[in-house]
Design a protein that fits this description.
This protein has one helix and twelve strands; from the N terminus they run αββββββββββββ. It is mostly beta strands. The protein is globular, with a radius of gyration of 17 Å.
Length: 213
C-alpha cells in the first residue's frame, strides 16, 4: 500500500531533540504559531501540493480537516480518515480501503494534528525574511535537521504575521527534490461531527477492505 505519510512531509520528525543554539526570533514566531494551533478546537484548510525534481513534477489540490486527534485528508485520489483510534486510507482508483491502528506517537509518519510541533523535534531553525504574499505578510523560518542521516536538507515554513497560521512550507531533500504545500484557504473552529472522520463503507459500494491491524 502506498501510504499517505508523505503529506505534510514524510520525514519531518526526528528521534532526538536538537541541542544546538536556536534563533530567538525564529523561536518566538514558531512558539506563537504553535500556541495559535493549540488554541483551536478544529480547522479546515485547502492547499496545493507540488513535488518533484528537474523535469518531473506532480501537482495536486487537497483538503485537510483537523479536530483534536481526528483528521481527514484528501489529495491525489486518496483520502485518509482518522478518528483517533483507527486510520483508514481510501484509494479511489481501485476502490480499496486500508485500515490500520492509529498511533499518535509514531515517528515514522507525520501527523497533521501535530504540524505545529515539528520544529521541537530534531531541528535547528533561523529567521530568514519577511515577504508579501496575496496581501499578507509572511515570516519565513528555515529549519535544518540535527541528524546527518535525515534525508531532508532543509524546510522553510512561512507563518502569517497577523494570525500566526502556517501559509506555506517547502521541503528540500538532499537529492534536490523539492516538495511544497501552499494553504489557499484556512478556516478555524469549524463545526464538524465526529462521524466525518470515520470511513463509511456504505458510501462506497463494492469497496475492498484490507484490514492491516
Amino acid at each position: 500500500m502506498r501510504k499517505l505519510a508523505w503529506i505534510l512531509g514524510l520525514t519531518l520528525f526526528a528521534v532526538l531533540p536538537a541541542m544546538a543554539q536556536k534563533d530567538k526570533r525564529a523561536q518566538n514566531i514558531l512558539d506563537a504559531m504553535s500556541s495559535r494551533y493549540k488554541s483551536l478546537n478544529s480547522y479546515q484548510a485547502a492547499f496545493t501540493y507540488t513535488s518533484g525534481g528537474v523535469g518531473a513534477k506532480e501537482s495536486y489540490k487537497g483538503d485537510l480537516t483537523v479536530k483534536g486527534q481526528k483528521f481527514r485528508l484528501a489529495v491525489g485520489g486518496q483520502e485518509v480518515f482518522t478518528d483517533g483510534k483507527t486510520t483508514s486510507t481510501y484509494l479511489k482508483e481501485s476502490n480499496e480501503v486500508n485500515i490500520q491502528d492509529y498511533d499518535a506517537s509514531s515517528n515514522d509518519e507525520l501527523n497533521p494534528t501535530q504540524i505545529y510541533n515539528i520544529y521541537k523535534r530534531g531541528f535547528n531553525y533561523r529567521f530568514l525574511k519577511e515577504q508579501k504574499q496575496g496581501g499578507r505578510t509572511l515570516e519565513v523560518i528555515e529549519l535544518t535537521p540535527t541528524q546527518a542521516k535525515n534525508s531532508i536538507s532543509k524546510v522553510q515554513i512561512s507563518v502569517d504575521k497577523a494570525d500566526k497560521s502556517i501559509r506555506n512550507w517547502l521541503i528540500t531533500n538532499k537529492d534536490g527534490k523539492k516538495t511544497s504545500y501552499t494553504i489557499t484557504k484556512f478556516t478555524p473552529n469549524v463545526t464538524i461531527p465526529d462521524s466525518y472522520f470515520v470511513f463509511d463503507n456504505s458510501k462506497h459500494p463494492g469497496v475492498e477492505v484490507v484490514d492491516l491491524r
